[in-house]
Amino acid sequence: YSSKWFQLELLAFFLVELTLVEYEMLKFPPSLLAASAVYTAQCTIYGFKQWNKTCEWHSNYSEDQLL
């Protein structure tokens, strides 16, 4: 793993874990929470939006849905 990829993975895991203690998050599908965590981690680690067509295809979520 590269350093940035490892940081991104850890941050995404952390963000998903935060949703586990919030009752209000139960209304969202786990796949949406996971995709949102990856999107947020990408924006945080890289400093700009990284969500592209490949991410959209694999997750089935557009950037607008994640926002």
- Return residue spans where pLDDT drops below 50 for at least 5 consecutive residues: none
The radius of gyration is 12 Å
Q: Mean pLDDT score, rounded?
A: 93
Alpha plus pi helix count:
4
Shape: globular
Cα-to-Cα separation, first versus last residue: 28 Å
Number of strands: 0
N-to-C order of helices and strands: HHHH
Q: Indicate the structural class.
A: mainly alpha
Helical proportion, percent range: 55-70%
Largest sheet: none
Instruction: Estimate the strand proportion.
Output: under 5%
Summarize it.
This protein is mostly helical and 67 residues long.
Characterization of this structure:
- It is built from four helices and no strands.
- The chain is an all-alpha fold and 67 residues long.
- The longest helix is centred in the first third of the chain and has 17 residues, at 3-19.
Question: Which helices and strands appear, and what pairs or packs with what?
Answer:
Layout: H1 3-19, H2 30-46, H3 53-59, H4 63-66
Task: Jot down its keywords.
67% helix, mainly alpha, 67 residues
